[in-house]
Design a protein that fits this description.
heterodimer, A: 282 residues, mainly alpha, MetI-like fold, B: 360 residues, alpha+beta, Rossmann fold, 2 domains, 6-stranded mixed beta sheet, 21 strands, elongated
């Protein structure tokens, strides 16, 4: 800010505080609820002070799940989610790196056609092609498998496009110098292109981990067995319908647990993430 | 080490003809500079020799072996790029040894070669650094080092000094000359800087518009430019080219009615012909009015410290074009027309239509 005016500063802080409140309050309520017993939550008004059943609730959720509805332990769901959230970015990065490398560094018939094919799919959200994709996965007998959960999420136009832009900032002379040094295309890929894209890969990993972790619609469709539930689906499953009472304390504990890994990934990879988004020097 | 033969090579990018038939024989160990204005095709020619561009027609041979269809890595050449093209994520040692590692040389051999070259180029203390931690001159030395460690038959330089400041450029020029004297490796060097061309070259190839204008030793190119293009390109300020008609008897060039330049060497064979008279600014000297070839009606002057550049015309109507003369600074302050003369050996004549040198 150019000028220092106390009133203006105070107003700015007030707006920011309001924003924090709006975002943080639901999270806080979730946390508070996850530390209370079922009875405490359903009593009106619900206490906004943390209860004393934190360990009990979390242990219960992790090992046994909700008693009424979904009975899979949340620990297992977390494992399924983790596998999906790790393999999806890894697969996406490998495939996108290779396809972007092909598009940028090789001249082959239909190069621009394929690039535009990839680019156009950017504009199609998963939901649009979800029915045919489901049919394909079902016909391949991949329902309720990791392959079925992961494969359709791996192809990525966005990541291909991002890597294409990254590669185009690598000076042509580097490729030529590598050719003069005797490096073949794949050698150049491993020794020059991949190391120069490391920060971008890290940034992409953070985004895609959260993307994979938060998947809802697709896992909901392809998983019918509780052993293949991801934690996001698990929460939905724990909310009982009809007459059965939902154990909100366990649901809230599960929700808190589901928030942890993405938050951890962002925290731990923050430095790389920012670097990958702003670094331009090649 | 090897000789390089360029035989009538052509290259087009789409409709644009970039190289229109260039031939040159380069001897083993020779330092050849390709010089010309930007867009004349000199870099393209170098890249064709390197194998980074295909050859449309003609052939290029290295050490007697035609390399038209040989991959760059198998041509036994090393190239230094204008923007250095160092691998940003590798340190200096890794940059220099990358080509050797691909050749699968032993660790000891790689280390021996890199350290020897690092010694020559004074890079020992920088071996652990990344390119971004180096200054422009240091990066350039690393790029040159990367070429030398491979011990190629031919060095290719693509405007290697143009990103350096003037002082560093002079230093690097001297270092390149010393290096070439030590290694005696055939070197092809592209530049648009005529000073680099004059100082570095054993022979130079002056290019314009995809053609070779002149091939020769720098001093021959300077003394006997083959075309008006070369005359204007080599030398600073460029050679004066004065349009006019050779008078009867061939003793003078008539620039305009009543204004003539007396020729120090009569050319009766060309009497009555329209010609361009070429004389370098540094070859014009003040003379007694009786001994002068012409007198320069001064337009303006530029003082360069030791020298004085005088610009003017040989006729009152400014016919014939502007003429520059490099005179001693002590002549500053003199007013009125300056009588000037020049020696017979510094007289050049060109055909105005073709631009080619005639006479002698």
């Amino acid at each position: 800010m150019v000028e220092r005016r106390p009133l203006f500063t105070a107003a700015a802080y007030a707006v920011l505080a309001l924003g924090v409140l709006v975002v943080a309050f639901p999270v806080y309520v979730t946390f508070v609820a996850s530390t209370q017993t079922f009875e405490e939550i359903v009593s009106v008004p619900m206490s906004l002070l943390p209860g004393t059943h934190l360990l009990e609730n979390y242990r219960g959720a992790l090992t046994a799940g909700s008693a009424q509805a979904a009975r899979a332990p949340v620990a297992h769901m977390m494992l399924v989610s983790l596998i999906v959230a790790l393999v999806v970015p890894a697969g996406k990065i490998v495939i996108s790196l290779l396809s972007a490398f092909a598009i940028v560094y090789f001249r082959f018939p239909g190069r621009m056609f394929f690039f535009w094919m990839i680019f156009v799919t950017l504009m199609l959200p998963v939901e649009v092609r979800i029915v045919p994709t489901y049919a394909v996965i079902a016909n391949l007998h991949l329902l309720n498998t990791y392959a079925g959960l992961i494969l359709p999420l791996v192809a990525s136009a966005t990541a291909t496009f991002l890597f294409r832009q990254v590669f185009m900032t690598i000076p042509d002379e580097l490729a030529e110098a590598a050719r003069m040094d005797g490096a073949g295309p794949m050698r150049f890929f491993w020794d020059v292109v991949v190391p120069l894209s490391r920060t971008n890969m890290a940034a992409l990993f953070v985004i895609l981990f959260i993307y994979g972790w938060n998947q809802y619609l697709w896992p909901l469709l392809v998983t019918t067995e509780e052993s293949m539930y991801t934690v996001v689906i698990g929460i939905r499953g724990m909310i009982a319908g009809g007459d059965a009472a939902t154990q909100w304390n366990l649901v809230m504990a599960t929700a808190m647990l589901a928030m942890l890994p993405p938050a951890l990934v962002v925290l731990l990879m923050q430095r790389w993430f920012v670097k990958g988004l702003i670094e331009t020097e090649k | 080490m090897a000789s390089v033969s360029i035989r009538d090579v052509h290259k087009s990018f789409g409709e644009v003809r970039v190289i229109r038939g260039i031939s040159m024989e380069i001897a083993d160990g020779e330092f050849v500079v390709m010089v010309g204005p930007s867009g004349c095709g000199k870099s393209t020619l170098l890249r064709m020799i390197a194998g980074l561009e295909t050859i449309d027609a003609g052939s290029i041979a290295v050490g007697g072996r035609v390399v038209n269809d040989v991959a760059p890595k198998d041509r036994d050449m090393a190239m230094v790029f204008q923007n250095y093209a160092l691998y940003p994520h590798m340190n200096v040692y890794q940059n220099m040894s990358y080509g050797l590692r691909i050749q699968r040389l032993s660790k000891e051999e790689i280390s021996r070669r890199v350290n020897r070259v690092a010694g020559i180029l004074e890079l020992q203390k920088l071996l652990e650094r990344k390119p971004r931690e180096l200054s422009g001159g240091q990066r350039q030395r690393v790029a040159i080092g990367r070429a030398i460690v491979r011990e190629p038959a031919v060095f290719l330089f693509d405007e290697p000094l143009s990103n350096l400041d003037a002082k560093l450029r002079v230093q690097m020029r001297a270092q390149l000359l010393t290096l070439h004297r030590g290694l005696r490796t055939t070197t092809l060097y592209v530049t648009h800087d005529q000073v680099e061309a004059m100082t570095l070259a054993d022979r130079m190839l002056v290019m314009s518009d995809g053609r070779a204008e002149q091939i020769g030793a720098p001093i021959d190119v300077y003394n006997r430019p083959a075309t008006t293009f070369v005359a204007g390109f080599i030398g600073s300020p460029p050679m004066n080219l004065i349009a006019g008609r050779i008078g009867a008897g061939g003793a003078a060039l008539e620039v305009a009615p009543g204004s003539a330049i007396r020729l120090p060497r009569p050319v009766p064979a060309h009497a009555g012909r329209d010609l361009l008279l070429g004389v370098r600014p540094e070859h014009l000297e003040p003379a007694e009015p009786a001994a002068a070839c012409f007198s320069l009606a001064t337009d303006f002057v530029e003082l360069l410290g030791s020298d004085l550049l005088v610009f003017g015309y040989a006729s009152p109507g400014k016919e014939g074009g502007q003429i520059a003369a490099r005179l001693h600074a002590s002549l500053r302050g003199r007013s009125g027309p300056v009588p000037l003369r020049f020696d017979a050996e510094n007289l050049h004549l060109f055909d105005p239509a073709s631009g080619r040198r005639i006479g002698d």
